[in-house]
Amino acid sequence: MPAGSEGPTVRLRRLGMELRVLREAAGLNSQQAADELGCSQSKISRVETGKSPVSVRDVRDLLGLYAVTDEEQRERLLGLARDSRQRGWWAEFGSWLPSGFDTYAGMEAATASVRAYQAQLVHGLLQTEDYARALLRALRVEDTRESVEKLVEFRMARQAQLTRAENPLRLWVIFEEEVLKRPVGGPAVMQAQLQRILEAAEEPTITIQVLPTARGAHAGLDGSFSVFEFPDPGDPDVAYVGGPIGTVFVEKIEDVRRFATRFDHLRAAALDIGESADLIATTARGM
Which end of the chain is more exposed for a tag (fewer CB within 10 A), N or C? Predict the structure, then answer.
């Protein structure tokens, strides 16, 4: 089950960022570092972006190449390398997960808060089992029943982040009004789903808003996105954009800031918390 620790994904990302800073301080580009270590430039790139596991030996070699002699710094980075190779709770789902979703789960497990704009679907952390099953059966038309059930199980397991004992995840979701009205799984399933959203909105760590269709043009018309904020100031925020071809993580500070600004515009345009709850309740009664 998900735990409230930062997990291997964020440790790997942090290690990669620090190694990149050390390489640049040593006056080397990634190709030069690769040549010195006898590996490919793409390996250096994957390590520095946190997209590839890295061995303790590789980190030790990189620290030697970058002339890092401070023992405390070396031990801290080697410790990150050891910790980054631990298995996250999502590892049990292995090959069942869509490409990139192991990274997504790792980010989610480590984040302090998620701000999400949902243009078409209920956020995965708020979905009921029946809604998730109906949705996945519709989206993953080539998957076996077993595969769909594994993904439903994975989605339900993710929701433990909302109730973890230490520092439960803070979630702020803005739904497009149409999300509430699309009867995924049929009226009864959707009515139960809307009730689940209303119950979640009563939690002090969860904020729900609805953006009415009547608002017209707004900052989210090109699709859903999320912004992850981490508890450690050394871990910069990340934006996430999902789609049928996989996951995209946006890490450049200026680009993440644009997503955060868009979210601020959307929350200003959306109904307030009370009005949003009233609209959700009214929509549920009309199902």
Answer: N
Eight-state DSSP code of residue 137: H
Cα distance between residue 103 and residue 184, in whole Å: 27
* CATH 1.10.260.40 in the chain, residue ranges: 7-84
Whole-prediction pTM value? 0.82
Rounded distance, CA 132 to CA 160, Å? 16
Helix (H) or strand (E) holding 108: helix 101-110
10-residue averages of pLDDT along the chain (287 residues): 58 86 92 90 88 86 92 90 81 84 86 96 97 96 94 95 90 98 97 98 97 95 94 88 77 94 98 98 94
Contact 194, 280 (CB under 8 A): yes
CB 47 within 8 A of CB 147: no
Classify domain 7-84 at the CATH superfamily level.
lambda repressor-like DNA-binding domains (1.10.260.40)
| CATH fold of 89-285 | Endonuclease; Chain A (3.30.870)
CA 3/CA 277 separation, integer angstroms: 30
